[in-house]
Design brief:
Elements (H helix, E strand, L loop, with lengths): L4 H4 L1 E12 L38 H13 L7 E2 L2 E4 L9 E4 L6 E10 L2 E14 L3 E5 L8 E5 L6 E7 L6 H18 L10 E11 L11 H6 L2 E7 L2 H20 L7 E6 L4 E7 L9 E2 L6 E2 L1 H6 L6 H12 L3 H7 L3 H13 L2 H18 L11 H12 L5 H15 L3 H7 L8 H13 L1 H8 L3 H14 L6 H12 L1
Parallel strand pairs: 11-12
Antiparallel strand pairs: 1-9, 1-10, 2-15, 3-4, 3-14, 5-6, 6-9, 7-8, 10-11, 12-13
Helix pairs in contact: 3-5, 7-8, 9-10, 10-12, 11-12, 14-16, 14-17, 15-16, 16-17
The structure holds adenosine-5'-diphosphate, zinc ion and magnesium ion.
Amino acid sequence: MAQTQEERELSVVIGLEVHVQLETDTKIFCGCSTAPTDEPNGHTCPVCLGLPGALPVLNEAAVESAVKIGKAIDATIPEETRFHRKNYYYPDLPKNFQITQYDEPICQDGELECLVAGERRTIRIRRAHLEEDPGSLKHKGGSIDTAEYTLVDYNRAGVPLMEIVTEPDFRGASEVRAFLSKLEEVLEYLGVFDSARDGSLRIDANLSIVKGDKIAEDGSIPEDVLADANRTEVKNISSHKGAEKALAYEAQRQKNAIKRGRGVEQETRHWDEARGITVSMRSKEEEKDYRYFREADLPPLQVADWKEQIEIPELPDARRERFQAEYDLDSEAADKLTSTKQVADFYEDVAAEFDAELAATWVADELLGELNYRDMTITDIQSRLDEVKALIELVATDEITAKNARETVLRSMLDDGRGPATIVAEEGLGKTSGDAVKAAVTTAIEENPDAVEDYHNGEGGALNFLVGQVMAQTGGSADPGEVNQLLREELE
Ligand code: ADP
Ligand code: ZN
Ligand code: MG
């Protein structure tokens, strides 16, 4: 659709605050489990309930995850990092303050590259800091306005979060989506995040509209222009798709307001997923409202030497490129085989033992194809990867046909849980040759005298019929060419 002059002149500017849940066994300041449970408040203790006198102890694993993220986004990790109290009263916050980081976050000035419509874009990351999650509220019998009563569950209170704050570098909703996919991919590679976990990604998005003539040649926007632009902060976004929809809506709403001469209120808005709109919540709170002060119950954390000690795995982009070069894969296969760290690790494991091309076919096409069809991922069969390797071995050593391996063994493995050797034995799928095929040929001739007679009378279809009988007897595991030849010899 052609843009009007007016629309071209209004440019969308977006910055994100992304909260990701770190995959640690226990909470950030106490020993309570972070595992999902059906028992409300089952994973709580005096620390995460904020009882008087209870003191926080920092979880090393959360710091390790934060350092890994810092290294992956090429951030500055300071010598020393500190914790602050962010004060506000709300029933999901048992202490009436949240322990977070303020002026000395664990990661500063990083960046992440992502592909937007085939073009590389670098998004600057202003900071990333550690904090504790509040609890969750369950409004019974309706929404917050209409509920009869509200239940409070502190199982989530104290779960470690990393808040990742970008610079306002996005110029549209689709860029945000590309960034979020890339971010999740990297976090999962690092093993610090699980996208499948409920509520593990929560996004606040800031959006403003800037006039085209304020944007520099190179696409950058001066600080004062950004600061002056009235922006809204859209809360309650919990998925990539939700982010794209919410921001597309919000961009249009602001443009309309500007075109009608109303201007944009600086405020916090709520994304109403069901209605597909953003609604005004409150005027935007400011930093000074939170009365930040130092958390005196936690000493400053000397984090510089952690950075040296903690290693991170090869990241997806680098691995993709290496796969293409090292295993001679096309970009499509390399994409599939690096889609998650688990897939990439398994591919390399298989390629080390068998041929790289056979490994690519079996992991990228057969295995991922069958898993995908069943709405499963490789993590669902992590404990059975040795069985998949055993199956590939049966193909590589020519013990079963590729067709049987793919269509019968692999599918049965996934559907009924049996191992490959069992399936091959029980279904009689071992490749048949030599004496076994000869025996089947003899049986077919003995059992089908009519067909034999037809053959001698020169009826062409008779031989094909007999081949079919032998193939059926051997469970499709014989070589049809060999069967054909043996039959002719026997019949003459
Ligand atoms: P606040 O004081 O509201 O927390 P920050 O300066 O910390 O503001 O920025 C919060 C988020 O707002 C960041 O993600 C930043 O990129 C984004 N942001 C800043 N200016 C703009 C703007 N003009 N338009 C859109 N987002 C912006
Ligand atoms: Zn606890
Ligand atoms: Mg802020």
